[in-house]
Design the sequence.
């Protein structure tokens, strides 16, 4: 049996923590920069900055082009995760606050499990399907809670759901690609493909950058360097050294951090009903990712030794009688 290197395990935990904090900060930066940049221009500016940093790092490390087998996953993730996801999220955050967006987008892990079961033949458990129902009920509550604020807010919730779907599709595409390419190769070329996919917004980016204050443009650069170049790479590093279930669990912390950051920096806090719907979304994710074995009563073996007082002899782990 292969033993995990403790140092490698600690580095994976640190990498996952970096990813969670930087991805949480992205929701706040997007909300701030979105006042000056349109969704497509913001996505292109972020991806351009990320591609420049990642490309320089790839050259320094001399990793070169990914193997041919990795390209289908890289192209798919580049278009969906780096391209469509970022445009949809930017657009959604122009219509709803950062905390609400984070709560809705965090149904992504359950969609990853669903798509993995379908596309990667990993199977669909009853817990997954139950969690899916709970999470989408939570998304519906969030949508209904925003309906009193106009159709634009409901549209923002739907755009965040679309962002969650494209994020999940990108992660599922990443899994087979990482069998052939390094995390840095995947992130660099995925980011470059996302940049190419958002090039139609180049005119908007140029004109808006000319008028935007320096603080907004610095937010765009921050998004490209930290939540994109660094956080996507640390995500890949941790994913290669940690189970997918544990990595998925780390993202549960993102909405809580976003709500705190958006209150601290933007003065935004989701309403109580919206927050309850968001927590329902996370509850569904928790149900779907639960691995605790079901317990059932088993026949008592008369030849078995007596059990200690206060112990139920008929309550046993289901997996012991498979």
Sequence:
């Amino acid at each position: 049996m292969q033993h995990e290197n403790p140092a490698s395990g600690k580095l994976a935990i640190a990498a996952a923590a970096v990813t969670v904090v930087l991805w949480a900060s992205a929701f706040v930066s997007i909300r701030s920069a979105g006042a000056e940049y349109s969704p497509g221009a913001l996505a292109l500016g972020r991806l351009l900055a990320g591609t420049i940093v990642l490309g320089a790092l790839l050259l320094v490390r001399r990793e070169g082009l990914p193997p041919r087998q990795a390209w289908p996953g890289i192209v798919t993730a580049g278009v969906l995760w780096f391209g469509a996801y970022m445009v949809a999220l930017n657009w959604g955050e122009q219509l709803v606050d950062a905390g609400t967006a984070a709560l809705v987008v965090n149904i992504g892990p359950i969609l990853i499990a669903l798509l993995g079961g379908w596309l990667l033949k990993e199977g669909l458990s009853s817990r997954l399907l139950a969690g899916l129902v709970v999470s989408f009920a939570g998304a519906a509550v969030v949508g209904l809670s925003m309906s009193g604020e106009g159709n634009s807010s409901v549209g923002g919730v739907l755009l965040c759901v679309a962002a969650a779907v494209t994020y999940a599709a990108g992660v599922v595409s990443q899994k087979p690609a990482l069998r052939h390419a390094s995390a840095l190769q995947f992130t660099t070329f995925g980011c470059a493909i996302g940049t190419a996919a958002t090039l139609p917004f180049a005119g908007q980016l140029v004109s808006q950058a000319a008028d935007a204050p320096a603080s907004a443009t610095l937010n765009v650069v921050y998004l490209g360097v930290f939540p994109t170049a660094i956080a996507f790479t640390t995500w890949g590093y941790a994913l290669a050294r940690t189970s997918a279930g544990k990595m998925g669990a780390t993202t549960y912390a993102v909405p809580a951090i976003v709500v705190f950051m958006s209150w601290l920096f933007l003065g935004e806090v989701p309403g109580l009903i919206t927050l309850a719907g968001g927590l329902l979304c996370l509850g569904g994710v928790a149900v779907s990712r639960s691995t605790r074995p079901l317990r059932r009563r088993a026949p008592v073996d008369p030849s078995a030794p007596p059990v200690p007082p206060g112990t139920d002899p008929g309550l046993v782990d289901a997996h012991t009688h498979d």
In short: Strands lie at 295-297, 315-317.
